[in-house]
Amino acid sequence: MLKSVKSRLTVLFLAVMAILLGLFCGSLYLWVRRTLDRRLDQELLLQTQLFQEHYLSQQDKSGARLAADLETGLAPTGSKAYVARADGEVLYATQGRVLPTDRKHFRLRIDGADYRGRASRVRTARGEVAIAVAVSEAEMQGQLREVLLYFAIFVPVMLLLSWIAGLLFVGRTLHPLERIRRQAEQISRTSLAERVPEPEVGTEFKRLARTFNEMLERLERAFEDLQNFAADAAHELRTPLANLRAELETSLQSPQPVSDPVLSSLAEEIDRMNRIVTDLLTLAKLDLRQYALRRERVCLAPIVAEVCETWQPMAAERKIDLGVGDCAEAAIDGDPVALRRVLMNLTENAVKYNREGGRVTLSLRGGNGSVTLEIADTGPGIPPEHLPLLFRRFYRVDKARSRETGGAGLGLAICKSFVEAHEGKIEVASEVGKGTTFTVTLPAAG
Ligand SMILES: Nc1ncnc2c1ncn2[C@@H]1O[C@H](COP(=O)(O)OP(=O)(O)O)[C@@H](O)[C@H]1O
Ligand SMILES: [Mg+2]
Q1: Which residues line ligand 1 (CB under 6 A)?
Q2: Which pTM does this prediction carry?
Q3: pLDDT tens-digit series, residues 341-386
Q4: Looking at ligand 1, which residue's alpha carbon is closest to its atom 13?
Q5: β-strand partners of 113
Q6: R_g (Cα) of the chain, nearest Å
Q7: Quick one: residue 111, left, alpha or beta (phi over 0 = left, psi -120 to 50 = alpha)?
């Protein structure tokens, strides 16, 4: 019951309407009753004065004539009157009814009808008399009943109309939501490119549709990445496999036994595949958060020095000046193996994708609760359109040339995953013809 927003809003609308109507009708009824009440009081006062005057002008008449006269005077008003002397002698009583004279205002029931009256003392030539006059409340009560009857018809009709209006209004307001829902129902993995319509009115619904579409966009991209990733992985593994097969076939067809160079070439291809598969496994484990990252205090300066030393021979071969610039005493909480891997990959890239006689500088800076590692080279740089895609898996700027140098394009993806697993970030800045700088920022050890 009342599970849907539509019925909830409608009931709420109806409840508010009922309260407002109740307040309106209640206050109107009270106001009408007060007005009628006052009018009846004025009427009573007038009737009392008229009767007193009438009585005073007729008091000399004999009992029976006086009564008949007074009766005729009162008949058209329907009021009752009573006159008594202080000693209790009744001088006049309409239809023989005794009215109270001991209090100024009184109420009583006569023949099942309500009356209200006033009593007063009047001096006459024959001494003081008490005069009481009562007027019927029947007309006032009748009018009040009419007002109530009107409300009894008016309120349900108004509530019914508000209910219908509420249903229509809420239905119309929620219509865009239903459209978004219907469209969203249609979206499946094969139609991720579809978007839900953005309604023209209703900022909230527009925002909802936009957020939903943005989410679809991200999903679509992630799905695309996943598909590309599978295709790229298959492609990358197929090349070394094809090479292996070709070399094996040639060896099988040749009558000579398999030579050492052929065997070492085969081993090289197997190494290549092994590297790709190991890298893929590392990435998959990081994605699934199954990579057991150690958390310990790691001083970065020795790692920087060690990495520099590792790549020194390759740098020397290409006459590249590889060295350490700033080297602050900085430590972080993390996994030393993962961090060494990050630095190794970035330094390898800086040396590999450099020009002969270039320079590679590693710097380590600390401060403001973070540690910054910078690997700057004087290589050919990376064109700006490649920069946003650089950290994607299997992404290489120059596919042909990189294949020669041996990478599959997973190095930077692994760096990014490792750095993010340490709550850090990795950025790249590059200028074509001048060089590239990778910056890794990590939270400093607490
Ligand atoms: N320092 C650099 N200077 C120029 N290009 C770079 C640099 N580092 C990386 N790249 C480009 O980014 C691509 C991806 O790098 P990476 O993920 O390490 O893959 P790999 O080194 O296996 O090719 C490289 O193929 C290269 O084109
Ligand atoms: Mg690399």
Answers
A1: 345, 349-350, 353, 377, 379, 382, 390, 395-398, 402, 407-412, 436
A2: 0.64
A3: 999 999 999 999 999 999 999 999 998 899 999 999 999 999 999 9
A4: 396
A5: 110
A6: 51
A7: left
